[in-house]
Design a protein that fits this description.
Blueprint: E1 7-8, E2 11-12, E3 17-20, E4 27-29, H1 30-35, E5 49-56, E6 59-66, E7 69-77, E8 81-86, H2 97-106, E9 111-113, E10 133-138, E11 141-146, E12 186-194, E13 207-215, E14 222-228, H3 242-258, H4 269-297, E15 303-307, E16 323-325, E17 327-329, E18 334-341, E19 345-354, E20 357-358, E21 370-373, E22 376-382, H5 386-396, E23 401-405, H6 406-412, H7 414-421, E24 425-428
Parallel strand pairs: 12-15, 17-22, 18-24
Antiparallel strand pairs: 1-2, 3-8, 4-9, 5-6, 6-7, 7-8, 10-11, 12-13, 13-14, 15-16, 18-19, 19-20, 19-23, 21-22
């Protein structure tokens, strides 16, 4: 990615010293810094006073004092390297003492992550203020946040969903006339156990769990919930239809797949990759079970939604106030996209329609494999392919729209749009 022709202290960015960042991150390691110096400060570097920090034109400016003398160190965070200069001695071929000691002072535990100062393409040439981010100077440092309009801003290096192949998962269909399950004073229903995957306590994907309930007079509503059902022993003495027995077996297979795996060494790329691979495989297996369960679920008289706030809460007896009645539909949601030219950036919007009608997606209750309209939060539709739910999950975190500054759109984002266009409609305008 090409950097802009900003001139700082009569020095263009092309004359800044380049320090390579750790691959796939904005992390600078102490060992890398030391390897670029002709001298070393050793274990006890000279005392350096950082008197102020500022962030202008996309550059972090650090004002420092060393032995009574002052200097300004300029740091620009690029895609794969750190660009560094100084008002005293650093240029493209030499990393000077002030710049070295400043970077050294910013390191903790042998490295420094400059992600907070990584805002490529967000500052127009010559403008100190950005149309994309707000910069607030505080006594303890600088806070840089996205403007509300740009909550979906994409930066080079950000993760994107895989759009190489869209494989539709076969969906079971209702056979003949829909037959509703028999009811008794004590019977069985099915709970859509769901949670917000962005919440730190969340630790499971959406799954189905049966429950035993006591019905009111005339068997019209739930009088009380007795227990969640996790095995065949939990339904002893209850008359089940063949469809319920089949649906129960699907539910029993769902629960162990629903638990999200976490890596004890998430900072190790190899370990994290293995954990992510297991989670992805479990997601897909769970999604296939949802497709098997859906037509059977449509034949049940009582289905509920439970916002669990974590798998540990799916146990014992369901709480009446937490169980909300829901319905499921067989119609297939269809994804499409709109790419808009907004002047200095592009915006990619995700849209979802059911039978040609646009859904206004409910961002308060993301269902991963399932979606619902904010006007009808009780009615859920199951998506059709793994790529569908990966894209919906990605876009749900950014209000279903992504903004990309034009300075790096072609190099870092256009390929993603082209990949999406192979499988979905993309309207441009």
């Amino acid at each position: 990615m090409k950097t802009k022709s900003i001139t700082i202290a009569d020095k263009p960015l092309s004359r800044f010293y380049q320090l390579p960042l750790e691959k796939g991150s904005r992390v600078l390691r102490l060992a890398v810094l030391e390897s670029h110096c002709t001298f070393s400060a050793g274990k006890r570097p000279e005392p350096l006073g950082i008197t102020s920090l500022s962030f202008e034109q996309g550059l972090l400016i650090v004002t420092v004092k060393l032995e009574g003398e002052g200097a300004r160190v300029y740091i620009a965070v690029a895609y794969d390297c750190l660009l560094v200069s100084c008002s005293v001695d650093t240029d493209e071929s030499y990393l000077g003492r002030y710049a070295y000691l400043t970077l050294r002072a910013m390191m903790r535990s042998g490295y420094c992550d400059f992600q907070a100062y990584y805002w490529p393409g967000c500052f127009a040439l010559g403008n100190k203020r950005s149309g994309f981010v707000d910069v607030v100077k505080k006594p303890d440092g600088i806070t840089i946040t996205l403007k509300q309009k740009f909550s979906g801003l994409f930066r080079p290096g950000d993760d994107l969903p895989d759009v190489t192949e869209r494989a539709v998962v076969p969906r079971e269909r209702l056979s003949g006339k829909q037959v509703m399950a028999r009811l008794a004073p004590v019977s069985i229903g099915y709970c859509f156990a769901n949670t917000d995957l962005q919440h730190f306590n969340s630790n499971h994907y959406p799954f189905l769990v049966p429950y035993v309930f006591a019905a009111t007079a005339y068997l019209k509503t739930v009088k009380s919930f007795k227990r969640f059902v996790f095995n065949t022993n939990d339904v002893d003495g209850i008359s089940l239809s063949p469809q319920q027995e089949e649906l129960n077996s699907i539910c029993f297979a769902m629960k162990p797949l629903a638990a999200i795996r976490f890596s004890a060494n998430a900072n190790l790329p190899e370990t994290a990759a293995k954990t992510n691979a297991v989670n992805d495989a479990n997601q897909l297996a769970l999604f296939k079970l949802w497709n098997k369960a859906l037509p059977l679920l449509m034949q049940q008289r009582f289905t509920h939604h439970f916002n669990t706030y974590g798998l540990r809460n799916v146990t014992g007896k369901p709480v009446m106030r937490d169980m909300k009645m829901v319905e499921f539909a067989m119609e297939v949601p269809v994804l499409s996209f709109a790419l808009k030219d907004e002047g200095d950036y592009y915006e990619l919007l995700l849209k979802i329609k059911v039978k040609g009608k646009l859904l206004h997606l409910n961002t308060d209750q993301p269902g991963l494999f399932l979606v619902c309209d904010s006007a009808k939060p009780y009615l859920w539709y199951l998506l059709e392919a793994e790529m569908d739910y990966k894209l919906v999950w990605f876009f749900s975190k950014v209000n279903f729209r992504v903004q990309v500054p034009k300075g790096y759109y072609r190099e870092f984002f256009e390929g993603f749009v082209e990949g999406v266009g192979k499988w979905y409609e993309v309207k441009r305008g």
